[in-house]
Amino acid sequence: MIEDQIVNDQLKEGDQAPSTNQLVQFYKINHATVSKGINQLVEEDILFKKRGVGMFVMEGAKEKLIQKRKESFMDNYVIGLVQEAEKLKVTEQEIIDLIKQAKRRIQP
Asked: Rounded distance, CA 18 to CA 44, Å?
């Protein structure tokens, strides 16, 4: 959720992130689960702690998240797409054309 807010510019660099208690109350999930997620974002240099004040978005966090998601997109979607295309003998140009067709279908 915090990652999405950063990528979508709802939380910008330097902004204060929701507290662990706010997230627990809003999503009605275990405090330990929220703490684990927050700590992971701190370890990844997405958030930083200001003692006694709260958690804040680190400078460069959005770029890091976008890069991380691009790598995940490659692993989770593109490699499988290319493997399936090779099985079906779909050329690179045909893949590109199919992607363009898909974009036209989903754009309003």
From this structure: 17
Q: What secondary structure, in 3-state letters, does 34-92 show?
A: HHHHHHHHHHCCCEEEECCCEEEECCCHHHHHHHHHHHHHHHHHHHHHHHHHHHCCCCH
Contacts for 30 with CB less than 8 Å, ≥ 6 apart? 24
Rounded percentage of the chain residues whose pLDDT exceeds 90: 82
Q: What is the pTM of this model?
A: 0.78
Q: How many residues in total does the chain contain?
A: 108
Start-to-end Cα distance in the chain: 26
State the Cα–Cα distance between residues 16 and 6, nearest whole angstrom: 11
Q: How far apart are CA 100 and CA 10, in angstroms?
A: 29
- What digits encode the pLDDT tens for the residues 27-58? 898 999 999 999 999 999 999 999 989 999 99
